[in-house]
Amino acid sequence: MNLHLLRRASDASPLRRASDGRALAAADAAALRSDAYIEELLASREPTVPPADLDPQVRNAAELLAAALVRFHPSFRFEEELAGRLRRLATATGTGTGMGTGSIGVAPLDGRRMVALRPPLAATTSSEGQVSGALGPLRAAGAGEEEIRGQLRPRQLVAQRQADVLPRQVLMGGAIASGVSLAGMALVAWRLGGPAGIVRRARAAGDTLLAPGRAVPAIAAIAGTSAGEEAG
Amino acid sequence: MFSSGLACNAYTAPVFRKGERLRATQPVPFDPDRPAVQAAQRDPREFEILYRRYVGQVYSFAIYELGDRHAAEDVTAQIFLQALAALPRFREQAAAASDPAASSFRVWLFQIARNALRNERRRVRRHPVAPLSTALSLPDAADPAVAAVEHDAFERAWRVIQRLPGDRRRALILRFVDEMPTPQIAAVLGRSEGAVRVLIHRGLRSVAEELRRPVRPS
Fold it and tell me: Which helix or strand (DSSP H or E) is residue B52 part of?
């Protein structure tokens, strides 16, 4: 390989190299003239006066290609279908709903409340291909998540949820309210029958323990049952 | 028109000329796709603007490269899905400063297209699913684009273009069909501008030679 290169380098005389350089420069100049003519041709959309030093064959070829090589446009159906696919992908990427992955995403509704939505969004497809649910027609029409959300107002969405469209919905705000309610109920229960009752029973048990031979009723009193019940 | 902090980086660049110390700064050419690209990078749903702008060009490139309408549709879909997925990683490069109409997003998109089409052509060559004559058949003569020009001229040009070798054919398609300027073609094909000019010039000479040959009945 190296020997070959060395031989070639030594064979190339300065005269030959100069002629090669001139040929390259001539080719470059011809390519530049062609490029300038093509630019003019494409800009004017019709055959223009060619430069005198342009090869007529090249000029004819350029004119043929400029006139005959038309631009194709995809069918409307294909274009819209691909636009829909891109929109769905963009929605999944943009909002992070994990569409199509089967995970649960969280979509903001009115800025404060967050509702977890299941990806199928009210549309379940049966084995026969029937699309059920209130959003079925939208789904069946091939509407994307964004379009479906666009069709719904928050109230409608909640109504959808109440109509058992979303089987395992989670309301975060509701969960907090439920937590507060449960805590309140626990407090009330504790206040009514909790420590006061226990103290009362403990005192009673202490009194009974002081009496000789009454150990079992005392234990029963602490456990919350009366001596009579224990005996019965 | 633009919100603050957007598209404001490197609008001006120092220009050095021989014999001058430093001229006043000149604006770097504005990429017409820049606002749309930035919007799409913030919100991928905005990608539709770019899609609508370039779907015809990419599809045309695909149909001239593959010669089959369905294959062209498949590859076009693949190209745009790939571009959308890769868009967050796209960074504009000021490589097209010599051309005021240059769009580096366009170059980037066509680079994706070139790779996808090259893979598709390779796949079709290795695993042909249809006879070559069918795969390289002419587009439907009823196509409005074809009907708009003289059919014979189109047929001749089509057959000649299909016979050209790889980059020579691509350079001519990008130049004449997509009307891409030479610097952009150079960026798409990964060659210098001079090399692309020579490619186009030689491609035209090849076309002229093919046109001189007598037409053989197929």
Answer: helix B47-66
∠ Cα A221 A225 A231 (to 5°): 100
pLDDT class of A5 with cuts at 50, 70, 90: very low
Stretches in chain B below the pLDDT threshold 70: 1-30, 93-103, 127-150, 214-218
Question: Could you tell me the two tokens for B109?
Answer: 């998109």
What is this model's ipTM?
A: 0.72
| Torsional class of B29: left (φ above 0), alpha (ψ -120 to 50), beta (otherwise) | beta
The whole-angstrom distance between A128's CA and the closest CA on chain B is 29
Q: Which amino acid is at A232?
A: G
Residue by residue, DSSP assigns B165-209 as -HHHHHHHHHHHTS---HHHHHHHHT--HHHHHHHHHHHHHHHHH
Q: What is the pLDDT of residues B85-107, one digit of tens each?
A: 999 888 876 554 455 445 588 99
In chain A, the largest separation of any two C-alpha atoms, in whole Å, equals: 136
Which two structure tokens, joined as six digits, stand for B195? 């090399």
**A23 is written with which tokens?**
């040929």
Structure tokens at A173: 């705000």
Q: Which residues of B touch A55 (CB under 8 A)?
A: 205
Token couple for B75? 């590859």
Please give, rounded to a whole number of angstroms, the shortest distance from the CA of B69 to a CA of chain A: 9
Stated pTM of the model:
0.55
Decide: A58 and B212 in contact? Cβ < 8 Å: no
